[in-house]
Amino acid sequence: EPEVTQTPSHQVTQMGQEVILRCVPISNHLYFYWYRQILGQKVEFLVSFYNNEISEKSEIFDDQFSVERPDGSNFTLKIRSTKLEDSAMYFCASSATDRDTDTQYFGPGTRLTVL
Amino acid sequence: GNSVTQMEGPVTLSEEAFLTINCTYTATGYPSLFWYVQYPGEGLQLLLKATKADDKGSNKGFEATYRKETTSFHLEKGSVQVSDSAVYFCALSDQAGGYQKVTFGIGTKLQVIP
Q1: Closest of B93, B20, B40 to residue B6, by C-alpha
Q2: Which of A10, A63, B78, B90 has the CB geometry, 3.0–4.6 Å to B23, for a possible disulfide?
Q3: How many CB pairs under 8 A join A and B?
């Protein structure tokens, strides 16, 4: 069964450093998403992406964040200058359509630790 | 805005016990409802979903019915197993902003003991 994959599974970085989290969505999906979960808190929507453009973003997704689909398979989340409060589990998801009846399929997550 | 409320847990049950995890929601539109499960060390997996009122989603012995009148989507299983130990997330999806977005509950940790 097709699945969303993410790398790395765990990333440790120093405050102020740039990190890139990578995702490979399901191959025939057109809509891509990033979510994050700070330890002990809810999974929160960050951004959605379609047709090489951001379609919606939350207030969390400020200028320090960016997303890109650099080729036909990868979808990346970049944090330019990490802060301690960026420590969280980051989930990538993809869906075939943007209908609310369609399922978003999630990857296993990348645990980001900012020291 | 949209929100999902579920019991935080942890919930500890003996094997073969009956499980209910309550979930209620608030939505501006007419959302689809989901339960996702996260097993230890793994990602979020879709467990079941329902897309309209009175629909029942079911999978692996778990069930949940979309109740529009009570804005609820409670998860039930008649007889839990140790392998059901995981974190369960209630979620809704809508297109109120034009694009699909999933809103999650806090997650309920279930521990099943032999």
Answers
A1: B20
A2: B90
A3: 71
